[in-house]
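Minutes, project check-in
Item: structure for the 403-residue chain
Input as provided by the requester:
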Amino acid sequence: MNKETLEDLEQWGEDVIFGRAKGFRAALMRCVLRWFSWLYRAGVLLRLRMFRMGFKEQAYLGTTVISIGNITVGGTGKTPVVELFSKTLRDRGRKVAILSRGYKSKKLDEPQKWQRRATGELVSEEEMPKVVSAGKGLELDVKYAGDEPYMLAKNLDEVAVVVDKDRVKGGKFAIEELESDILLLDDGMQFLKIAHTIDVVLVDSNAPFGTGSILPRGTLREPPKNLCRADYIFITKCYHAGNTELIKTIRKHNQVAEIIECTHGPKHLENVFTGETLPLEFLDGKFVAAISGIAVPESFEEKLTDLGANVLFHRTYADHHSFSQKDVDRFMRRCVRRDADIIVTTEKDAVRFPKPEEMDVEVYFLRIEVDILSGVEVWENLVDRVCMPKKPVDPLLLYEKAI
């Protein structure tokens, strides 16, 4: 089965789960997937219980570990929140490292070479994760880094980005070799092999519990009751503060977590290939061709419409789709035929977007950033909690405690 067929099958699977696919085949597949959901749910709960009872071991890395994750698959706006945490903690003087699994990233052709800080010896291949950035610029191409880690490394100076499926290995490397004193566990709620100091869980205000069903029938990774593990809950993509009904629902599962409401607001347009920026007002009245490979393409199209754009058409692909030259050239020809004023994609897609052979229509991405609508004091207290220097322990007290 070739790559295109596999991606078409993946796209159809997403359409089945999200309810976009219609007809008998799709309905039958949803029935089959529902049975597998019960097995998946049982496996998730068993795994959590094994960690809780100590049958599965957790690594304690000796530094602050902030997990930023969700109970649904994709679409909660996690990457901009990770970026917000990284920038804020960096600006407060902490040495931040982001640990990512690098979803759909390719294996390196040759391992990176890294000399140990303490001895000058080379780090062995078994201990060496992929270093997308050590805080001083990009060190890997997007195909080896993965789109989200690459985007974060590109946007964040003085923040390390480390990729490995074994994030215990990545965390140890970040502490020992990059001198990181705070680890941000990207998409970390389900990664329990590292002990979390703080659990931040994101809930999309538009679809708090995804499609309402557990994987693979739906988009829930865990039952909603597992929100009880969160220390802080960010309600994302809000149009306004005061989501009272949603907060009431969340409180049924977690009565003590601090709640912050935020919006993922567009800031400007940026040319994918030249870096030129345009104000958002440029979209008003323009005929736009949209292209994306994200979990919830509807939210992207909605943002463009809200900004006054006339969306001629929107070509969607499976999440994390790797755009080929054929994809972009075919799309460009369609844009020319439809007389589009501008092509707009997402920032995550922009890092995977090859330059079209004929640049007949300019290609821009929509830059998105997080703004806190309510819970500013909670956010500031969280940052203070993380950044507050630890008081030195009096050796005499330790001695007295020992005797």
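Outcome recorded: The chain has twelve helices and 13 strands.
No further action items on this chain.
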